[in-house]
Amino acid sequence: MADLDGRIALVTGASRGLGAAAARALAAAGAKVAVTDIAAPEALASEIGGLARALDVTSEDDWAATMAWIKAEAGGLDILVNNAGLWLFKPITETTLDDWRRLHAVNVEGVFLGTRAAVPLLAERAHLWRGGTAIVNLSSVAGIEGAAGATCYNSTKGAVRLFTKGCAKELAAARIRVNSVHPGVIDTDMGRHLVDDFAAAQQIGNNEVLAQVSAMHPLGHLGEPQNVADAVVFLASDRAAFSTGSEVVVDGGLSA
Q: Signal sequence span per UniProt (predicted)?
């Protein structure tokens, strides 16, 4: 288990799914975790002994206030997990400009705004840890390869992938490591929405689509949130002290 004792982490989109799993795993590894979402995840914060705050990741003002809050409440920031994101399954000819802007606002601009806001706090505490401080961005296998019907989502997750690499080079001198995690289809609400969308598009039953999607992964099943959370904890820890700009793919072989 990675040792994160004494570290302060913030996770966006932490109410459920991958965000909640990452928050629990970071706390289990010893970090003090601030969980954020559109509505403050108070129950999760209570469960893990952390902090909770409402945060709209598309708002510059919210990010500025959140950084001031975590500095006052916890003393700073060592780990930022940019997890908040939306899914969209629509043919490109049916994707509206509003769809495009909404998805990019959360999935891309939210990562940019969070990273920009967090850098000063992360830089302040980077000297405390052998591997410096860390940003972990949740991308997707859809940020590595295309998928029909998911062009808008592909665009956002591909942007996160390359934004991560640029930040890794730019922030290395400040001892801030920046890496991305690329899940396949994970058994979360979003993963189930994907199955629902595929079933509707093919006009077949959900169980049949679930079997198809599971078979697309060479390991033969969907991933579990803990699989992704383990990758987040590793990248946040000193065990990944020489990893920055890396892509950690957690997809059961889907993109192999």
A: none
Provide long-range contacts, Cβ within 8 A and 24+ apart, for 147-153.
Answer: 148/91, 149/89, 149/90, 149/91, 149/197, 149/201, 150/88, 150/89, 151/92, 151/95, 152/88, 152/90, 152/92, 152/95, 152/99, 152/100, 152/103, 152/104, 153/87, 153/88, 153/89, 153/103, 153/107
Q: What is the pTM of this model?
A: 0.95
The order of strands in the sheet holding 79-82 is 51-54, 32-37, 8-11, 79-82, 133-138, 176-183, 247-250
Domain, as residue range, for 155:
8-184+224-250
pLDDT tens digit sequence for 91-107: 999 999 999 999 999 99
Question: Active-site residue among 89, 129, 153, 198?
Answer: 153
Whether residues 53 and 98 share a domain: the answer is yes
**Total count of domains within the chain:** 2
- Nearest-angstrom CA–CA distance, 168 and 46: 33
Active site residue 140: no
Within this chain, do residues 87 and 192 fall inside the same structural domain, yes or no?
Answer: no
**Residue 217 within any structural domain of the chain:** yes
Q: For 13-51, how does the pLDDT look when each residue is reduced to its tens digit (9 = 90+)?
A: 999 999 999 999 999 999 999 999 999 999 999 999 999
CA–CA gap between residue 185 and residue 140 (Å, rounded): 9
pLDDT in tens, 201-240: 888 888 888 888 899 899 999 999 999 999 999 999 999 9
- Report the pLDDT averaged over residues 134-154: 96
Q: How does DSSP assign 10-24, residue by residue? A: EESSTTSHHHHHHHH
